[in-house]
Specification:
about 150 residues, alpha+beta, Heat Shock Protein 90, 3 helices, ATP-binding protein, Anti-sigma-factor_SerPK, serine/threonine-protein kinase, ATP-binding, ATP binding
């Protein structure tokens, strides 16, 4: 398991995820970044680390969350407007993982049904298929994935 670093009122605290302390029931990360293609992989890795540190060990759920992060961040990098992309991941151990990506655009994501030879256009179809729920609030596209 990866070492985990949590914040308390005195600053960052290192704690290996296998420590005997009580399990984390809620976790949240929020970052803003320039819309660069390399950020997709970075957000995917940050997501995996965050979920591992929080104790989410179901590889199927983690894989789905990472895929949806990739799709939403890729859309924001390609189609967003503005200087920064906002990313938020919320984990509630009793319920769900919520992914939010704010691309500062006024456009709405479109679920396409590309042909079998199309090289792109499947992102929002994957989100619609794999997420429990998804939508758009202002310029923020979000989706949820159940953890149980």
């Amino acid at each position: 398991m990866l070492p985990c670093f949590l914040d308390d009122e005195d600053g960052p605290v290192g704690r290996p995820s296998e420590s005997p302390l009580a399990p984390i029931t809620e976790q949240r990360i929020q970052v803003a970044f320039l819309p660069e293609p390399r950020r997709v992989a970075e957000m995917r890795r940050m997501t995996a680390t965050t979920l591992d540190c929080a104790g989410l060990v179901d590889p199927g759920v983690v894989d789905v969350v990472q895929l949806l992060v990739s799709e939403l961040v890729t859309n924001a990098v390609r189609h967003g407007k503005g200087g920064l992309v906002g990313f938020c991941l919320r984990y509630d151990a009793a319920d769900e993982v919520r992914i939010e990506v704010d691309d500062h655009s006024t456009g709405r994501p479109v679920v396409r049904h590309p042909g079998p030879d199309s090289e792109s256009g499947r992102g929002m179809l994957l989100v619609k298929t794999l997420a429990l729920a998804w939508g758009r609030t202002g310029s923020c596209t979000w989706c949820t994935v159940p953890v149980r």
